[in-house]
Amino acid sequence: MNIFKKTIFSVLLSLLVMGNVYADKIRIGTEGAYPPWNSKNEAGKLIGFEVELAYTLCRYIGQQCVIVEQDWDGMIPALIMRKFDAIMAGMSITAERQKAISFSQGYADEVASLAVMKGSSLEGLDTSAGINLTKPNAAAKKDLKTLTAALAGKTVCVQTATIHQNFLDSGDVGKVNVRTYKTQDEVNLDLASGRCDAALAAAVAFSDYAEKSGKPVVLTGPTFSGGAFGNGVGVGIRKDDTELLKKFNAAINKARKNGDISRIATKWFGFDASM
Question: What's the angle, vertex CA 117, arms to CA 116 and CA 121, rounded to 5?
């Protein structure tokens, strides 16, 4: 009996120690499969724009970070269930997501784009360079009609539970055959193998894949922002964690003022995508 009690006491003590170890650290969830926003290197270490930015923001806050890997489609539920304290995973700020969680101010812009393989009939669509869907003007509405005609009967591949899937499902470009995947890597692979006529994601995700893989993936049509695509990418935080939200907003302001966000974005994207 004494041995049993000692064992239970040891287990409880270990749990208490573990809790204290992480008590002063901010746990940040990221996907690790959406380069260059977040990914893993050959050694399996989490890297990318948001991983580096997370450590920078925590330094301004004055606390250490623990980066937690989480599948994209379970990201918000995991935050709410307290698996981690914040999300930094290329998550755009949308009205729908704000019903469940809060967001910091935006730290980067994630314009979206269609991508095809070079030589595709969809390459070089006659559209504007970019459209904002918050209040689409006449040119944007014309571009949507052009896309509706071009994508009719086509299969467009996209990562599941993303703003990109929401846009395709919205009907703004007509009835599209939408094929969903768990990760962006899977989208890229099937686009390159010809299983998709086109794919939709952050423009930089396709550019990054084309550069690293050598595959002739090219962007086509306009870039998209606003509307279903949200208002930039921010830190996702539980609604009741108001103090942590204030800390992240203050840290983002400091990082922006000191040029850190611009520097880190340029390092990972090849251009300044900071907001």
Answer: 75
| Tokens 């250490």, located at residue | 64
In the chain, which ranges are E strands?
25-30, 39-40, 46-47, 64-69, 86-87, 102-103, 112-117, 130-132, 155-159, 177-181, 198-202, 217-225, 236-237
Burial of 60 from C-beta contacts in 10 A (0-12 / 13-18 / 19+): middle
Do residues 92 and 229 make contact, with C-beta atoms less than 8 angstroms apart? yes
Query: Which one, of 130, 179, 131, lies nearest residue 151 by Cα?
Result: 179
Encode pLDDT of 26-69 as tens digits.
999 999 999 999 999 999 999 999 999 999 999 999 999 999 99
Confidence (pLDDT) at 24? 80
Q: CA 31, CA 197: separation in Å to the nearest integer? A: 26
For residue 159, the cross-strand partners are 181
Q: How far apart are CA 22 and CA 204, in angstroms?
A: 34
């914040």: which residue's tokens? 86
Q: Is 235 exposed, middle or buried (0-12, 13-18, 19+ CB in 10 A)?
A: buried
Sign, CA torsion 123/124/129/133? negative
